[in-house]
Amino acid sequence: MKVGIDVRPLESASGRRGVGAYIRGLLSGLAQERGAEEFLLFAGRRAQGGAPAGFEQVRLARPGRAITLWDQIAWAPLLSRRRVTVFHSPFYAVPCLRPRGCAVVQTVHDLTPLTRAGAVSRHDARLFRANFRLARTADRLIVPSLATRADVVALLHVPEERIAVIPEAAGIEEHELTAGDLRAGTVRERLGLSPDRPFLLHAGGHDPVKNLPRLIDAFARLLAAGRELDLVLTGEHGPTTAALAAHATRAGVLSHVRMPGYLPRVDLIALYRGAAVVVYPSLTEGFGLPVLEAMACGAPVVAARAGAIPEVAGEACTLVSPEDDAALAAAVAALLDDPDLAARRRAAGKARAAQFSWRETARRTLAVYREAAA
Known about the structure:
Elements: E1 2-6, H1 18-33, E2 38-43, E3 55-59, H2 69-81, E4 86-89, E5 103-107, H3 112-115, H4 122-135, E6 140-143, H5 146-156, E7 163-165, H6 174-191, E8 199-202, H7 212-224, E9 230-234, H8 241-250, E10 257-261, H9 265-274, E11 277-280, H10 289-296, E12 301-304, H11 309-313, E13 318-320, H12 325-337, H13 339-353, H14 358-373
Parallel strand pairs: 1-2, 1-4, 2-3, 4-5, 5-6, 6-7, 8-9, 8-11, 9-10, 11-12, 12-13
């Protein structure tokens, strides 16, 4: 069996978010789990470095955008020429046409653009809708959670038997935790965080579904109660970043808020390790990888009871309504005021995160490839 995987999202902004983490994690797991399969990684013109050992990288001279006419014209002859048995699209670009004997697998991470109005721009919403229409033509779909499977069945009308639920993983190794601890002082100093004042952390994008204005409101309640705290909102700056800063200004807390933008993995781990509480009040999630990463780093987590987050968190996090900033503030305060509770959450989180691995993700994904090719 020859498997072709479209890894072009690694070269875009998606490569610095959950999709990129998924592709890198899946490849690391496949490198450990693969048997006699051959793997081709289809990369774009800006691909950095080579493929993992045992994987062949194929450079594509094509437009940079994710869904174009190129994707519908060029894939079929390319897949035929390279004798690909299974083509896996981990984000975009399921071809309508494919050569005889080539099965197609697509990962659908979530249907947020369909389930949450205003979650993405109008332009991006059109691209997502086109992608979701194409997803119906795939032989098999992979989703990261039962919540996403339910959305795919209800909104895309794909039968459950064509959908495989395969969770993701944090994949944070012990040596990365050690490196993060060594970076902690440097990261705190660069962000202007006092070593004596605790901070709350949110890791992820600034897009509307992340519910950051309500997190800022909850943070303002904590400061109004006399607590000495800072709030760090990581993630790439985008169209909503200025509005978040304005919201923090109106709430009177801007001087206590840090928005450092995208951070290297080691710096993010340092923040996970040092945070008094990681807060993730997202309105919905197809999986919620930052929750799992925070738990793997030993942080106590307060998260939203929404989307797939309860599936990922299990009993290891404090879950609250994402619509209630007072409940959010109270949940954070409970962890700040009760060191024993925080310690129990830290231990439970690490145990929960250890139940997920990229190797298991890869093992189950290989099974989908084999079923699709049969």
